[in-house]
Write a structure and sequence with these properties.
Layout: H1 15-32, E1 34-36, H2 39-47, E2 51-53, E3 58-60, H3 63-72, E4 77-79, E5 88-90, E6 96-97, E7 105-107, E8 114-116, H4 119-131, E9 137-139, H5 152-163, E10 167-170, H6 175-189, H7 192-197, E11 201-204, E12 212-213, H8 215-227, E13 231-235, E14 238-239, H9 247-268, E15 274-278, E16 281-284, E17 289-291, H10 295-311, E18 315-318, H11 329-344, E19 349-351, E20 356-357, E21 362-364, H12 365-383, H13 389-392, H14 394-400, H15 410-419, H16 431-436, H17 442-456, H18 464-473
Parallel strand pairs: 1-12, 6-19, 7-21, 9-10, 10-11, 11-13, 13-15, 14-16, 15-18, 18-19
Antiparallel strand pairs: 1-3, 2-3, 4-5, 7-8, 16-17, 20-21
Helix pairs in contact: 1-9, 3-9, 4-5, 5-6, 8-9, 9-10, 10-11, 11-12, 12-17
Length: 478
């Protein structure tokens, strides 16, 4: 049922250091607390035994409440696709990589120039996600600048559902939009209970750094938890800006903030499928700006993944971005190295791994194709090396003997596709063949493949009746 890639071979912390981070986290939550501007959240915490100061809006969370939350949060969460082949199991060190970002700009597929993202891009990037085999899920990765603010949520999710049958996750901008999206998902599923049985949609509800929960996102968290749907509670501390410059300090702060959201979800609905999360990175101290394609971000997310594994809670993390402005060598090495590190750590749900450039402000259709190969290689590394009597192949080596070859041996035919990753974009031809085929560089090949997908790929979509029904019921859909 599930495609398994088990990570966890790369560890940032020793077991003793994991315990140190945990104890530092408990100390922060118990003694410093989280400032909660949301009145309903403070009331929920107060009713369940937290220390709440109404004047300062500080909520101090006792150790017992933290431990109860860790115990009640599911260790196994299934994020469903609209087709069973796209179901994802988030458990232990299982690894899946997908999109993310909610950016405002894209490099145009026709002329390569930067422009504002539109509804057609939500659909286009969902279609790319549907077609590329190493993308496991679609975190809606762009904002439709060509629709009214009150119609953004319904358009983002409608065009996502219409163009990919993989799991869809996204952030939300208004409460009305959230409620409409949930109703629309229920309509597609065949009713509220059907959606709860196979939730093919989930939501992101951000924590703020340092140690802050604001009103709107917290309202969204409360609503999603009441509905019993999956949600992620990531925070985004930036080392050197709104968190300590030390990576251990940033991981500890991230840990406290994400657990704060988890605790609230469990107080509202014990056992709600909630995913611990990080979108953390660093500030470039030379420029005072956020950067995405740095190895420190990968180390922070790997450390958070180790904490999540310690708690036996699924993890939403970040890797695979670049700060380059175009799809070039920098885009390749930054994206590949950060995706690889976070994947090897065993982070369950790695978003932002496809198509992101320029500090996560710009998308590229071509880069999604390039990243599909990079992520394929990362997943091959995660898979590791299987050791068994069959794979050690001592009998085969004896049979072939000194000076022989294995090219046409049945053992090679049986195992080659299991052992080797075959990239779809990379050129592995001799130079003379490459020249005969037009001397195309990686970007050119990626451009051709992206255009082919946008023009030719046919996603699951909706029946004619369902599409008509949704467009009539949700009139803001473009």
């Amino acid at each position: 049922m599930f495609k398994h890639y088990k990570g966890g071979s790369f560890k940032v912390f020793s077991e003793e250091e994991v315990k140190q981070v945990h104890e530092a986290t408990v100390s922060l939550l118990e003694n410093v607390g989280i400032k909660m501007h949301n009145d309903a959240a403070r009331q929920i915490f107060a009713e369940n035994g937290a220390k709440v100061d109404s004047e300062s809006r500080i909520v101090k969370i006792p150790r017992a409440m933290i431990e109860d939350t860790i115990d009640s949060t599911p260790s196994r969460i299934i994020l469903y696709g609209r087709e069973e082949k796209n179901d994802l199991l988030l458990e232990g060190s299982n690894v899946h990589l997908g999109t993310g970002g909610t950016v405002l700009n894209t490099l145009d597929i026709d002329n390569g120039k930067k422009r504002l993202t539109e509804v057609r891009d939500v659909a286009g990037y969902a279609k790319m996600t549907d077609a590329l085999d190493n993308i496991a899920f679609f975190v809606i990765n762009c904002y439709p600048n060509d629709v009214a603010e009150e119609e953004v949520d319904i358009n983002r999710f409608y065009h996502a559902f219409a163009n990919t049958s993989k799991h869809v996750m996204g952030g939300i901008y208004t409460m009305d939009g959230l409620k409409s999206v949930i109703r629309m998902a229920e309509d597609i599923a065949g009713g509220p209970e059907k959606l709860k049985e196979r939730p093919f949609v989930s939501f992101i509800t951000l924590m703020m750094s340092p140690l802050l929960m604001e009103v709107t996102y917290t309202d969204f968290l409360i609503e999603v938890a009441k509905c019993g749907l999956p949600l992620a509670t990531p925070s985004e501390p930036l080392a050197g800006a709104n968190s300590p410059v030390t990576l251990a300090g940033t991981i500890t702060l991230n840990n406290a903030e994400s657990l704060g959201g988890l605790i609230l979800s469990q107080l509202i609905n014990k056992g709600n499928p909630t995913i611990y999360g990080s979108t953390s990175s660093i500030m470039d101290v030379r420029t005072g700006t956020y950067v995405a394609g740095n190895i420190e971000s990968a180390l922070i997310n790997a450390g958070c993944a180790q904490m999540a594994q310690h708690y036996k809670i699924p993890m939403y993390g970040t890797g695979g971005m670049s700060d380059s402005k175009v799809v070039d060598a920098q885009a390749g090495y930054e994206s590949a190295s950060t995706a690889m590190v976070v994947a090897l750590s065993g982070c369950n749900y790695i978003h932002d791994a496809f198509g992101l450039l320029e500090f996560c402000t710009t998308l590229s259709y071509e880069k999604m194709v390039v990243d599909n190969d990079s992520v394929g290689m990362a997943l091959r590394a995660v898979k590791g090396v299987e050791v068994s009597e069959e794979t050690l192949a001592t009998d085969i080596i004896k049979e072939v003997g000194p000076g022989g070859h294995f090219l046409d041996h049945p053992h090679t035919v049986e195992h080659v596709r299991k052992e080797f990753y075959f990239p779809k974009l990379s050129d592995r031809q001799q130079r003379v063949v490459w020249e005969e085929e037009g001397s195309k560089d990686t970007f050119t090949r990626a451009h051709e493949e992206a255009r082919r997908i946008l023009e030719k790929h046919q996603p699951l979509g909706f029946t004619e009746d369902m599409e008509k029904y949704l467009r009539e019921k949700y009139t803001g859909i473009r």
